[in-house]
Amino acid sequence: MGDNDLIRQAGLRVTAARLAIMRTVREGDHLDVEAVHRGVLDRVGQVSLQAVYDSLHALHQAGLLRKIEPMGSPARYEARVGDNHHHLVCRRCGGMTDVDCATGIAPCLAPVDAAGFVVDEADVTFWGVCPNCQR
Question: Pairing mode, if any, of strands 66-68 and 76-78?
């Protein structure tokens, strides 16, 4: 299914900027808003940073993009949705990569005491130093 159909099925209006955002995020690697904005400008020309923020928010709320907010760095976006994967983040360069769930299907990790919650997702960030920064 193409981005046009995904956006429509989510109840959103299909615009050139939203299509460019989806393509930019899909082709990128955990991009922040500034990087998404640059990618959209390259694809469709003049689009305000605020319009990119607004569209990212709408696409995230619709479940078409995932927003990752690692401690101490700006929010990033990816198109890998619908699973419960986690992330590895480098403390030195800020690079980020996906890592599959440790034990299978969501939530893949369970708290010792769920305090009455029905847990359906675990959001885990592993921190360390990437291979490039180790050199």
Answer: antiparallel
Q: Which pTM does this prediction carry?
A: 0.86
Can you give the pLDDT at residue 106? 67
Distance, in Å, from the CA atom of 19 to the CA atom of 42, rounded to the nearest integer, reads 13
Strand pairing of 86-90 and 66-68?
unpaired
88 and 67 belong to one structural domain: no
Burial of 86 (0-12, 13-18, 19+ CB in 10 A): middle
Nearest 5°: phi and psi at 63?
85, 15
**What is the average per-residue pLDDT within 88-106?**
85
67 in the same domain as 131:
no
